[in-house]
Specification:
Largest sheet: 8 strands, mixed
Helix content: 25-40%
Order of helices and strands: EEEHEHEHEHEHEHEHEH
Number of strands: 10
Strand order of the largest sheet: 1-2-4-3-5-6-9-10
Strand content: 15-25%
Radius of gyration: 18 Å
Structural class: alpha/beta
Length: about 300
């Protein structure tokens, strides 16, 4: 089967930075969907990983799909590299909605956003601010990114030293995203994630700025969850999620207001939820979007 045609695109954000990605244009005018995989605190997850398959899946069902690298990641501009500011990431999504809504293939009242793990968090926060968004798909969302409280003081100390050094002209300080034990600097356990990515020859660098982790210590979207309504939200939770447990995802889901739906993928964990029967994994999402976007 021939690969789904895609176009290399770029757009400028309000801050003046150029972001680059791929557009999967539908055959006729209709809905759009913007997708991003912020897997397991993967602040440096480029568009090349995971989401192309998902974009193609939605494209085959009539969506024009957009995937792009956020600030400082992959093909997009922005320095320092591999540095994530959560509010800036939300702004990237807002500006991507603006760009996509101007495409003649798009019905601007039918644009959904889709995010995985860390970006499952970010798309929820984005929808609380942008009423143009018609629906949200939040998959295995890492609602709380503050990490292990016992690591807080060490990250703060390192972060303040990094900021002082940068003011003195030094380069930004980086930490591995995952150490040799499969643990992030904030204490989340990812296991053999990078070994798996390396074996698949996927383009991910194992480094993130210290400043990113310092921002994480104070980042919370809990107060935003009730404010997303009336935008429809479907939360998709792998039953055995080892990165952010299913019970905690359910607690966040309960804070959302209607319209909403919670889909639990039985027997799957954070890194394998979409493998195997892909159609079954996405069926509930697609039905939710069809219903609430009136497709």
């Amino acid at each position: 089967m021939a690969p789904t045609p895609r176009e290399a695109i770029e757009f400028r954000t309000l801050s003046g930075v150029t972001l680059r990605g791929w557009l999967y244009p539908a055959e006729k005018r209709g809905p759009g969907i913007i997708l991003s995989a912020g897997f397991a605190m993967q602040f440096n997850m480029p568009k090349d990983v995971v989401v192309p398959d998902i974009a193609e899946w939605y494209h085959k069902r009539g969506f024009t799909a957009l995937i792009f690298d956020t600030y400082g990641i992959g093909a997009s501009d922005g320095k320092p590299r591999h540095d994530t500011d959560m509010q800036r990431r939300i702004d990237d999504f807002i500006d991507s909605v603006t760009w996509l809504s101007q495409n003649p293939l798009i019905d601007p009242e039918k644009i959904a956003i889709w995010g995985l793990c860390f970006d499952g968090n970010i798309v929820l926060a984005t929808a609380a601010s942008d009423r143009r968004i018609a629906a949200v798909v939040s998959v295995a969302p890492m609602i709380d990114v503050t990490g292990d409280p016992e690591r807080r003081e060490a990250i703060l100390e390192l972060g303040l030293a990094d900021r002082a050094g940068r003011l003195a002209g030094e380069e930004p300080m980086y930490l591995p995203l995952v150490d040799e034990d499969g643990v992030t600097p904030l204490g989340q356990f990812l296991g053999n994630f990078f070994t798996t990515m390396d074996s698949m020859k996927l383009p991910i660098e194992n480094r993130v700025t210290v400043d990113t982790y310092m921002r994480c210590l104070n980042w919370s979207i809990l107060h935003l969850l009730p404010k997303i309504s009336p935008t429809p939200v479907i939360m998709v939770t792998p039953e055995l999620d080892q990165v952010f447990p299913a019970a905690r995802q359910k607690e966040a889901f309960d804070m959302l207001r209607e319209p909403k739906e919670h889909c639990v993928i039985v027997g799957k964990h954070h890194f394998n939820w979409m493998f195997g029967d892909m159609d079954n994994a996405f069926k509930k999402q697609f039905e939710f979007l069809k219903k609430h976007m009136q497709l």
